[in-house]
Amino acid sequence: MRWRYILYIVGILVLFLGLTMAFPLMVVMIYQDQDPGPLIGAMVATVLFGATMAIGFKSPRTEYISPREGMAIVAVGWTAVGLFGALPFFLGCSQFTFVDAFFESVSGFTTTGSSILTQIEAVPRGLLFWRSFIQWLGGMGIIVLSVAILPFLGVGGMQLYKAEVPSPVVDKLKPRIRDTAMIMWKVYALISLAEVVLLLLGGMSLYDALCHTFTTMPTGGFSTKNASVAHFDSVYIDGVITVFMILAGINFSLHYQLLRGKTLAFWRDSECRFFLVTVLALTLVVSWNIHGAVYKGIGEALRYGAFQVASIVTTTGYATADYEQWPAMAQLILLLCMFLGASAGSTGGGMKCLRIMLCFKFCYKELFGLIHPHAVTHIKIGGKTVSEDVMRSILGFLALYMGLFAFCSVLLAGLGVDFVTAFSAVAATIGNIGPGFGMVGPVENFAQIPVLGKWLLIWCMLLGRLEIYTVIILLVPEFWRK
Amino acid sequence: MKVVIVGAGEVGFHIASHLAYENKDVVVIDRNPDAIRRITENIDVQVINGSGSSPMVLEEAGIRDAEILLAVTNSDETNLVACMMANLISPSTKKLARIRQADYDRYHENFRHNAPHIDTIINPEVEVVKTIESLLSVPGAVDVGEFANGRVKFVGVRLDRDAGLHGGRLSELSSRIGKQAPLIAAVVRDEELIIPRGTDRLMEGDLVYFISEEDKLSDALQVFNKRSRQLKRALIVGGGRIGFRLATRLELKNIHTKIVEKNPLRCKELAENLNKTVVLHGDGSDQGLLNEENIRDMDAVITLTNDEETNILVSLLAKRLGGRKTITKISKFSYFPLMTTIGLERVVSPRLSAINTILQHIRRGKVLSAISIKGEKAEVMEAIALETSDIVNRPLKQVSFPKGALLTGIIRQDAVFIPSGESIVLPGDRIIIFAQRQAIPKIEKILSVKLEYF
User: Fold this and answer.
1) Which of A423, A358, A346 is nearest to A389 (CA)?
2) Beta carbons of B25 and A176 less than 8 Å apart
3) What's the mean pLDDT when you consider all of chain B?
4) Of A181, A236, A254, B93, which is least surrounded by CB within 10 A?
5) ipTM score here?
6) Full residue range of the structural domain in which residue A7 is found
7) E strand or H helix at B86, and its extent?
């Protein structure tokens, strides 16, 4: 473990984050609704700190980063970025205590969307912009972005990329990891642009359109309004956001293929097919369940049903309705959606459809083996055999996910939080969704969680975004042995 | 530039890492998932798990927009079929194949002009035999490369104490020895490669690389206190394909050769096909046999069995028993750094030879040959200076040469000279450049044609 080198890279990441603070500063300059002093202070502090680290730990360019070092860079890097991303909140607005600012910032970068803000609209626009913008950065990944634009990472970029991208297997679209990362970001930016234009056509202001795009595409879920997307109360906007949430929940390499003219790309991919069919089926069931009970018209039931299912299953976490008023079945389906999550290689969180699908296939294979004890079977996906290694890592992941979920919810309940809240708050943060049930439901927020609970949930969000292994491995004693 | 490599063995792996380091787009195809995993964990290239001879896999690898296809699997047949399919799908792709069986030797020209249109056929065994021959012919050399059809030699020697050169600055070298000193291109010290300046000093135990014309080579070697002695007797351990090829070459040079082979059937074959060589049946690691055959009088012992551990042990044994020069065949690259430590300096590797041959065909611009030296940290290239290149027609001190690269020789018509800051490279000259790995992409840019000429 070359700690010097790890800290050097982390320093560069922090420096880089500091530079992006110029964007909210521009917003402050335009709207003039806030003293730019604190924001400038945060930016200067971040840039200076990053630069000092990068210069202080300056290391020669290396060709090789070991998997261990890669994970350390990503885990430490994300924590550092979360910490410095909190500075503008902490300095710029009196609503934030330190832990609240850190919570909000990590919730942003990990694209969770859980908030501690009670009065969102009271926060200056520059800060709200920063809150949305960090979700956009975190969605495709700050490390992926650095791999794409910082040439010095070279070959080692692969290890970092693997540690950050939420997928059991990495699709390399181009021979070089740098080009692959670049393509991912370009596709991401292009779809974001399309959403901004469509939202503008729906009558949103440029500011709101940008902020909501920055939180839809990474499946983040922060809104600039107290009432979230319900504030706009427009069928068109609900529709556009629903479609883009689903798009963001699809593997981005499929978007790339689609853009290159392979029109059937979505349908040919078995995970994507599974995801789309599931979303459609759950939407129909939920809409049927809430039709009559909450909403009179079929159209209305479909509108809110589809939006809420898409919002939860892709782990975005916007709300257009208080789903806690819905019948139990609809609520349970939404709760299960929190675990299901979006596709691998998308910006969404959760366990990911691919893993669930493979888990089902694995169970079927076991049953099949009981019936035909001599059968030689392979688990296949899209006609290709899934290797034992991948399968093992997936089963390990699912076990760890459920284990950590159970452990953290018991811990949170131990801090005096009620049953439903403890259960759903952990599910909502570890799955990077945002709102849960009970005290942290769609019309409430995380302000009431005790301070220690907030630290726990911050850790859960990082766990979820970096797909467990990268974070949890730091706690394994073997990792620290020389 | 996109390169598709079929076969992720040692050769495929090392070529891929070379090229990836130079920021080329590389796609590697192999059937073995373990080989594929080794690549993904170490090199930034795209990998495809599949058979390289399958047209579907080749298409998936993007053969249509690939500039070069390298077929370097262990199977000659797979390599041929891969080239054939690539020729059908994408005729413009340049094809290089490794073909080892001697049976194909006569058909190399056919492969080039007819169906598969393989641009270059690499037979590493032939290359290895060439390398062994030059190592045998240059006294004291631990590494030898040839340029300009052998007229210029690139030699690495170990600096001994009795040469009396250690401690002096390079700029004082000529005055110290009283005549023009050979140009020292690089020094390897403690596994680190240094491109020396005039103020650098040589140290005892350095591996010194220099460039010299062939007819001045013995003078140059004398500077390093390496005197030539005629090679009269050689012992080859291992009568495989390389051993046989080498024995036939040595017979032609009237060198008294003995060859030891374990397999009695193979011994018979060798005895039938070789005329003057003494074929011995036995185990090369048998001390009794080596003593019986007067190993202490051998000028050279060459170990070429298929088992590298045996080769290493036999070479060490031969050294201990008094053999003068040993040449050891090694395939595993991870052993290379260890060889100097255990005292075996002269090492050949069919795979390294294959890599060298492939490299010279991949280099952009008019590169005639390229040799990668110890540990692959640097390369020596011979190239033709094009009229359109940046380096011609002005004094060298005005040329912005990348860091870590050195122009070590200019060959104009028949003359070879060592350049100074005032020298001017003319279009059509052949130049020899020594470059560290990170400087290679820039060198390629300098050597290739400027864009505005298209």
Assistant:
1) A358
2) yes
3) 82
4) A236
5) 0.74
6) 3-176
7) helix B76-89
